[in-house]
């Protein structure tokens, strides 16, 4: 278990530094809020999240996979797929669960109140990818543990999935510029920053699209894919319409947001007006 922890920490540190350097060298958008204050808030939330998970249930998903394998729980432990196939199927199945979980956090009013903390960030960059309310982190952990028990993926699949989810979340929230042709190729295999940034648009129909974290296929299969924001990536507004004052989005305010904040009309069943599209697509 200690080895798994070091793998995850090393991957986190490496991807975080690489994305931060890429953002500094080739930013996609000009930031609208002073970076030091935002990063203090976001990194404080991230630190609290990790401390809470470490205290409550460190390595819970991997431990569940070990227990499931020993007891024969889960679908994959019954079908006895070859090792590599079981790993691939396990990673894909867990990614589908995360996609459906993300949909649920947009559809259930109480869960949306928690998820607002992630969307209320007025800019989007590598730190946004890990900025979630601590209660949402615990709910997500419970869902993930239940999914591991039900699916029965190999331990290796769970480790790969956890590292991949952490890495791609930082990547696809990155404020980084990619050549359009490269983006079009990459988004066939992975959720790119330009694809996921649409999900952080203030426009309700755009917020309720592109729910994938690792792989882009679920959005295409289930009809939630949206290729580009109507206003273009440099012209779009990031965040939620009801939270526009940076001074009210500090660390403590974000922790209290689920009980003090207005949830707005962002639930999936309140899709809002279709955004007005630009006459020419942004290059």
UniProtKB/TrEMBL annotation:
<dbReference type="InterPro" id="IPR050307">
    <property type="entry name" value="Sterol_Desaturase_Related"/>
</dbReference>
<dbReference type="GO" id="GO:0016491">
    <property type="term" value="F:oxidoreductase activity"/>
</dbReference>
<dbReference type="GO" id="GO:0016020">
    <property type="term" value="C:membrane"/>
</dbReference>
<feature type="domain" description="Fatty acid hydroxylase">
    <location>
        <begin position="87"/>
        <end position="224"/>
    </location>
</feature>
<dbReference type="InterPro" id="IPR006694">
    <property type="entry name" value="Fatty_acid_hydroxylase"/>
</dbReference>
<feature type="transmembrane region" description="Helical">
    <location>
        <begin position="46"/>
        <end position="67"/>
    </location>
</feature>
<feature type="transmembrane region" description="Helical">
    <location>
        <begin position="6"/>
        <end position="25"/>
    </location>
</feature>
<dbReference type="GO" id="GO:0008610">
    <property type="term" value="P:lipid biosynthetic process"/>
</dbReference>
<keyword id="KW-0472">Membrane</keyword>
<dbReference type="GO" id="GO:0005506">
    <property type="term" value="F:iron ion binding"/>
</dbReference>
<protein>
    <submittedName>
        <fullName>Sterol desaturase family protein</fullName>
    </submittedName>
</protein>
<keyword id="KW-0812">Transmembrane</keyword>
<feature type="transmembrane region" description="Helical">
    <location>
        <begin position="79"/>
        <end position="100"/>
    </location>
</feature>
<dbReference type="Pfam" id="PF04116">
    <property type="entry name" value="FA_hydroxylase"/>
</dbReference>
<keyword id="KW-1133">Transmembrane helix</keyword>
């Amino acid at each position: 278990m200690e080895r798994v922890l070091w793998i995850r920490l090393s991957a986190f540190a490496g991807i975080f530094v690489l994305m931060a350097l890429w953002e500094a060298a080739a930013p996609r958008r000009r930031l609208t809020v002073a970076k030091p204050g935002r990063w203090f808030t976001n990194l404080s939330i991230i630190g609290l999240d990790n401390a809470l998970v470490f205290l409550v249930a460190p390595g819970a998903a991997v431990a569940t996979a070990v227990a499931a394998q020993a007891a024969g729980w889960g679908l994959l432990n019954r079908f006895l797929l070859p090792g590599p196939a079981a790993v691939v199927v396990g990673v894909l199945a867990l990614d589908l669960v995360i996609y459906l979980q993300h949909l649920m956090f947009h559809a259930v009013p109480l869960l949306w109140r928690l998820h607002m903390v992630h969307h209320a960030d007025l800019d989007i960059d590598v730190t946004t990818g890990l900025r979630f309310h601590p209660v949402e982190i615990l709910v997500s952990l419970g869902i993930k543990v239940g999914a591991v028990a039900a699916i029965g993926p190999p331990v290796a699949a769970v480790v790969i999935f956890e590292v991949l989810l952490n890495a791609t979340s930082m990547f696809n929230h990155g404020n980084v510029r990619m050549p359009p042709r490269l983006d079009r190729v990459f988004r066939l295999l992975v959720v790119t920053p330009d694809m996921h940034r649409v999900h952080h648009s203030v426009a309700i129909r755009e917020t309720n699209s592109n729910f994938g974290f690792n792989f882009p296929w679920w959005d295409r299969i289930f009809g939630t894919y949206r290729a580009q924001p109507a206003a273009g990536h440099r012209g779009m507004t990031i965040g939620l319409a009801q939270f526009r004052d940076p001074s009210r989005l500090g660390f403590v305010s974000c922790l209290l947001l689920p009980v003090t904040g207005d949830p707005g009309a962002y639930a999936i069943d309140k899709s809002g007006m279709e955004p007005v599209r630009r006459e020419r697509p942004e290059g």
